[in-house]
Amino acid sequence: MTSRTPAAPAYRRMSVEDRRSQLLTSALTLFAQRAPEDVSLDDVAEAAGVSRPLVYRYFPGGKQQLYETALRSAADELELCFAEPESGPPTERISRMLDRYLVFVDGHATGFSALLRGGSVAETSRTTSIVDEVRRAAAEQILVHLGGDRPGLRLRMLVRVWIAAVEAASLIWLDEGRRPAAPELRDWLLDQLIATLAATAAGDPDTAGRLDALLLLEHPDGPAGRLAHALLPTARRTAGQG
User: Fold this and answer.
1) Looking at the predicted structure, is the pLDDT value of residue 8 above 50?
2) Contact between residue 193 and residue 162 where contact means Cβ atoms under 8 Å apart
3) Can you list the domains of the chain with their CATH numbers?
4) What is the pLDDT of residues 39-93, one digit of tens each?
5) Contact, 23 vs 48, CB < 8 A?
6) Rounded to an integer, what distance in angstroms lies between the CA atom of residue 50 and that of residue 109?
7) The pLDDT value given to residue 120
8) Which residues contact 73 (CB under 8 A, 6 or more apart)?
9) Helices 62-80 and 125-145: crossing angle, nearest 10°?
10) How many CA within 13 A on the CB side of residue 236?
11) Quick one: which of 156, 166, 192, 43 has its CA closest to 112?
């Protein structure tokens, strides 16, 4: 009885750009499901239905080059989550950004966790720089919707700290089996931003002026109004009025 040699993957001729795109898509899918150190070039080749030498032909730097290129592609996709027209109540704009961001996190769970937690063998100064670029882009977009014309120091710090909190909450959310539900997490994160804005405005005239202008654009039954209504009894008790 003779044994059969496993058939090689069927090779389909593609243009250079199409083949490169196919390899990146396969790599992104794998990196979204596993930590970078758990993905090999053989895995990528198998997922794409090509040979390992072909992967090297397009990415002569091996897995590290492929990972950094895939990360850059994912970062570009993530930055799009924060693109939002400057119309309508600001909290509703930021709410839509958070919705898109959480969809991205959900779809790239393992890779997202490995990336933000660090410590991966694939982590380098270049990968860290790519992640920092996304953070800066997100901060700039948030500031646009918070009255971003020459924002003051405290407002810039506030937004950067909030983005760090969003990242931490995203990791905890994944660890907790995506509980609470994404809309509930979104609303809670938005409440954190509004409350932090109010706290900062209490001691910073620049933030106070911007917050006053933003509140004029809000609907009474929107996120800012709902939070203010929920906190009113607490504020009255604190002030000794009820």
Assistant:
1) no
2) yes
3) 12-70 (1.10.10.60), 81-229 (1.10.357.10)
4) 999 999 999 999 999 999 999 999 889 888 888 888 888 899 999 999 999 999 9
5) yes
6) 26
7) 57
8) 24, 28
9) 0
10) 8
11) 166
Of 130, 153, 102, 101, nearest to 36 by C-alpha is: 130
Spatial separation of the C-alpha atoms in residues 192 and 112, rounded to whole Å: 22
DSSP assignments along the chain, one per residue: -PPPPPPPPPP----HHHHHHHHHHHHHHHHHHS-GGG--HHHHHHHHTS-HHHHHHH-TTHHHHHHHHHHHHHHHHHHHTT---S-S-HHHHHHHHHHHHHHHHHHTHHHHHHHHH---TT--HHHHHHHHHHHHHHHHHHHHHTT-SS--HHHHHHHHHHHHHHHHHHHHHHHTTS-S-HHHHHHHHHHHHHHHHHHHHTT-HHHHHHHHHHHTTS-TTSHHHHHHHHHHHHHHHHTT--
Q: Is the dihedral of CA 7, 13, 19, 25 positive or negative?
A: negative
Which amino acid does the sequence have at 158? L
pTM, to two decimals: 0.84
The residue type found at 91 is T
Amino acid in position 171: L
Tokens of 15: 């243009």
